[in-house]
From TrEMBL:
Alphabetized Pfam families for the sequence: RACo_C_ter, Raco_middle
Keywords recorded for this protein, A-Z: Membrane, Transmembrane, Transmembrane helix
Stretches that traverse the bilayer: 40-63
Organism field: marine sediment metagenome
Coiled coil among keywords: no
Record-given protein name: RACo middle region domain-containing protein
Domain RACo-like middle region span(s) in chain numbering: 1-63
Length: 108
């Protein structure tokens, strides 16, 4: 996409893009899709709460639910969202070190 990756390393990490992107496949180099296909990238919530959490919020309809829900994503980073359609809180932490050496081979 032509973004400068040097911004990934310095502290504090500040993402280059936080908003969603809507592109044509033909505008993304080396992407093996039909050139006229739309490619939609979800936005990040913050530097450490990414589009995977946005996808989870959408998948479980948390954004329109009256009841409070909890969504957890564990991977290299652990991200948690607690909330309902009224308000949501998110947090993240490094989770990879918690699983190192645990002999996990097929998920948790």
């Amino acid at each position: 996409l032509g973004f400068n990756p040097s911004y990934i390393a310095p502290s504090p990490y500040i993402p280059i893009i936080k908003e969603s992107l809507n592109l044509k496949a033909k505008d993304i180099p080396r992407l093996a899709l039909e050139p006229t296909a739309n490619v939609f990238m979800l936005p990040n919530i913050s530097a450490f709460v990414g589009a995977d959490i946005v996808a989870g919020i959408l998948a479980i309809c948390m954004w329109k639910n009256e009841k409070i829900s909890l969504f957890i994503d564990l991977g290299t980073n652990g991200e948690i969202v607690l909330g309902s359609k009224r308000k949501m809180w998110t947090c993240s932490t490094a989770a990879g070190p918690a699983f190192e050496g645990a002999r996990i081979s097929s998920g948790i």
